[in-house]
Write a structure and sequence with these properties.
Layout lengths: L1 H20 L10 E2 L20 H25 L9 E4 L3 E3 L1 H31 L6 H5 L3 H4 L7 E2 L9 H7 L6 H20 L8 H22 L5 H22 L20 E2 L2 E2 L9 H6 L14
Antiparallel strand pairs: 1-4, 2-3, 5-6
Helix pairs in contact: 1-3, 2-3, 2-7, 3-7, 3-9, 7-8, 7-9, 8-9
Length: 310
C-alpha cells in the first residue's frame, strides 16, 4: 500500500509538471470583441514584477504549513508523559517506528499531495477555458485595421489576431481560475484547520483565532492584489478560493480524519456457542417462573404471623 501511494504521488507531481512547464496541453483560444473594455486594462508587466510574485507565494505556501506542523507535532510529543507515548513495532522486538515521525510524514505528505492537486485543478481550468485576463488586449496588441474592426460588437476569432509576444499572449489567456489564489487559500485553510484541531492553548482563548484569521487574511490579500494589478478578474479569484478551500477541507476531513490518531479497530466479538447434547445444539427457550415456585421459595421472616381466614 505504501508503494502504491508513492506511485500516486509521483504521478501527481509529473502531471503538475506537464501542466506548468510544457506545452503538452495547449491553451484553448477564445475570441474577443474589438475594443472590449473588459480586457483593455494596461499590461502590468511580468509576474516577477508583481507585489506578490509567484516565488513569494510558493515559498509561503510551502514554509508556513511545514513549520507549523513540525512545531505542533514536536510540542505535542514532548509534552506527553513517557508512559503515554505510543510505540509501533515494525520488525522483531527491538525496532520501533516513532509515532512522531509517522504523524509528521502523514500530515506533510497529504499536504504536498493536495498542493500539487490544487495546481493541477487550477492549470486544467485555465487550459480548458482559455479565459482572458483584464490586460489581454494590451498583451495581444491586435491590428484593428487589418482585422476590420469597425465597431465594438465585432467578434474576432482568428488565431493570428495577436501581434504581441506569443509567450505573454499565452499567459494572458490563463485567467480562470486564479492559481495563486487557489494555492494561498489551500495552504491557509489546511494550516488553520491543523491549528484549530491540534493545538491546545491554556490561559488564553484568542491565540488560535488570531493565528487563523491572520493566515486567512494573507491568503485573501493575494487575491486582492491579483485583481488590483489587473492580472485576474474577481470571478477568477473567487473560483480559486473555492478550489483551494474545497480541496483542503476534503483532505482534512475525509483523508486524515481531522488530524486525529488512527484508532485501532476493535477485535471482532466472539459469540459463545450453546452447550449441546449428543452433538445437537441446544436451543435456549424463555423460562417462565411459576407462582407456586415463588411461594415455596419464600422464607417466612421471624416474628411474623399469619391469620387463617376461613
Amino acid at each position: 500500500m505504501f508503494y502504491f501511494q508513492l506511485v500516486i504521488m509521483a504521478g501527481t507531481v509529473l502531471l503538475a509538471y506537464y501542466f506548468e512547464y510544457t506545452d503538452t496541453f495547449p491553451v484553448h483560444v477564445q475570441g474577443f470583441f474589438c475594443y472590449d473594455k473588459t480586457f483593455s486594462k494596461p499590461y502590468p508587466g511580468p509576474e516577477e514584477n508583481s507585489k506578490v510574485p509567484p516565488i513569494l507565494v510558493y515559498s509561503l505556501v510551502t514554509a508556513i504549513p511545514t513549520i507549523t506542523i513540525l512545531a505542533g507535532e514536536l510540542m505535542a510529543f514532548f509534552m506527553k508523559s513517557e508512559s503515554t507515548r505510543e510505540k509501533t513495532i515494525v520488525t522483531a522486538d527491538c525496532c520501533y517506528f516513532s509515532p512522531l515521525l509517522r504523524r509528521i510524514i502523514r500530515f506533510l505528505g497529504v499536504y504536498s499531495f493536495g498542493l500539487f492537486t490544487t495546481t493541477i485543478f487550477a492549470n486544467a481550468g485555465q487550459v480548458v477555458t482559455g479565459n482572458q485576463t483584464p490586460h489581454f488586449l494590451s498583451a495581444c496588441r491586435p491590428n484593428y485595421t487589418v482585422l476590420g474592426c469597425h465597431s465594438n460588437l465585432q467578434y474576432i476569432t482568428e488565431r493570428r489576431a495577436c501581434t504581441g509576444n506569443p509567450l505573454i499572449v499565452t499567459s494572458a489567456r490563463k485567467s480562470f481560475p486564479s492559481k495563486d489564489a487557489a494555492l494561498s487559500v489551500y495552504s491557509a485553510v489546511y494550516t488553520v484547520m491543523y491549528v484549530t484541531l491540534v493545538f491546545r492553548t491554556k490561559g488564553t482563548r484568542l491565540t488560535k483565532p488570531t493565528v487563523s484569521l491572520t493566515l486567512l487574511c494573507l491568503a485573501m490579500l493575494v487575491g486582492v492584489v491579483r485583481v488590483a494589478e489587473y492580472r485576474n478578474h474577481w470571478a477568477d479569484v473567487l473560483a480559486g478560493y473555492f478550489t483551494g478551500g474545497a480541496i483542503a477541507v476534503f483532505l482534512v476531513t475525509c483523508v486524515i480524519n481531522n488530524f486525529q490518531h488512527a484508532k485501532p479497530s476493535p477485535p471482532p466479538m466472539r459469540l459463545r456457542r450453546p452447550e449441546s447434547v449428543l452433538g445437537m445444539p441446544m436451543v435456549a427457550l424463555p423460562c417462565v417462573e411459576s407462582p407456586l415456585e415463588k411461594l415455596s421459595g419464600t422464607q417466612t421472616p421471624r416474628g411474623s404471623s399469619f391469620t387463617e381466614i376461613t
